[in-house]
Write a structure and sequence with these properties.
Blueprint lengths: L1 E5 L3 H9 L5 E3 L2 H7 L3 H11 L4 E4 L5 H14 L3 E6 L2 H12 L4 E6 L2 H10 L3 E4 L1 H6 L4 H15 L4 E4 L5 H10 L3 E4 L1 H7 L3 H16 L7
Parallel strand pairs: 1-2, 1-8, 2-3, 3-4, 4-5, 5-6, 6-7, 7-8
Helix pairs in contact: 1-3, 4-5, 6-8, 8-9
The structure holds erythose-4-phosphate (E4P).
Erythose-4-phosphate binds next to α7.
Length: 218
C-alpha cells in the first residue's frame, strides 16, 4: 500500500519524507490557500523533495479549459498527476489527458458509480473522500469496499486512492481492504507510529539500562 501526504506544506512533506514512508503527495486549492504560496512554485519544490506522484488540481469548469489547464500543470514536472474534479466535464478532460499520456487523479468522488465512470474514462487514480462521507453519516469506508469490488470485477487498472482520511482507523481499514494508496495528513502519519505501550516500553528499557553497571556497557 502506498502512502501519499495530503498537504502543500513543504515542511510537513520533508518530515514525512525523512521517516522513509512517503510515496507521493496530493494537494488541492484549499491546501495551497493555507500555505499562501503560488501553485507552480510550491509544486516544483514538492517535486524536488519527493520522487513520486504529486497531484496538482485543476480549477477550470469546462472540458476544453480543464484540458488546457491540465496540460500546463503536467509541464511543471514529470511527476505531476493532474487532479480533475468528478463530473461530465471532468470525465471528458480525463479521457483527453489520458490519450496524451498525462496521468490523472479524479477527485471529489462520493459514489461507486462515479468511480466506475472515472475508471472507464481512463483515470490513473480515483479519490473517494471517506472523511467527508462520514461527516454526513454515510460510511466512507463502505464506499472504498464497493469500488475495490467493482474494479476487481472488471480488472480496471485505476488505482484506489483513499482521500479525506481523518484517523488511523481509516488507514487500517483501507490497508485491510487492499486499497492501492491512502493520502494522509501529516498528523495521521505521525499517529500511525505511536502506541502508548511503545512509550511505556521505551521508558522502562531506558530506566533499566541505567541500572546496568558502567563497566558492563559497550
Ligand atoms: C484529496 O486529495 C483531498 O486533498 C483531501 O484528502 C481532502 O480532505 P479533507 O476532506 O480533509 O479536506
Amino acid at each position: 500500500m502506498k502512502f501519499f501526504i495530503d498537504t502543500a506544506d513543504v515542511e510537513e512533506i520533508r518530515k514525512a519524507h525523512a521517516m522513509g514512508v512517503l510515496d507521493g503527495v496530493t494537494t488541492n486549492p484549499s491546501l495551497l490557500a493555507k500555505v499562501g504560496r503560488g501553485l507552480e512554485e510550491t509544486i516544483r519544490e514538492i517535486c524536488s523533495i519527493v520522487d513520486g506522484p504529486v497531484s496538482a488540481e485543476c480549477v477550470s469548469a469546462d472540458a476544453p479549459e480543464l484540458i488546457k489547464e491540465g496540460k500546463g500543470l503536467a509541464k511543471i514536472h514529470d511527476n505531476v498527476v493532474v487532479k480533475v474534479p468528478m463530473g461530465v466535464e471532468g470525465l471528458k478532460a480525463v479521457k483527453a489527458l489520458t490519450a496524451e499520456g498525462i496521468r490523472t487523479n479524479v477527485t471529489l468522488c462520493f459514489s461507486a458509480n462515479q468511480a466506475l465512470l472515472a475508471a472507464k474514462a481512463g483515470a490513473t487514480y480515483i479519490s473517494p473522500f471517506v472523511g467527508r462521507l462520514d461527516d454526513i453519516s454515510q460510511d466512507g469506508m463502505e464506499l472504498i469496499a464497493h469500488i475495490i469490488e467493482i474494479y476487481q470485477n472488471y480488472d480496471f487498472t485505476t488505482q484506489v486512492l483513499v482521500a479525506s482520511v481523518r484517523n488511523p482507523v481509516h488507514v487500517l481499514q483501507a490497508a485491510r481492504m487492499g486499497a492501492d494508496v491512502a493520502t494522509l495528513p501529516y498528523s495521521v502519519i505521525a499517529q500511525l507510529a505511536q502506541h502508548p505501550l511503545t512509550d511505556i516500553g521505551i521508558k522502562k528499557f531506558l530506566s533499566d539500562w541505567e541500572k546496568v553497571p558502567k563497566s558492563a556497557k559497550p
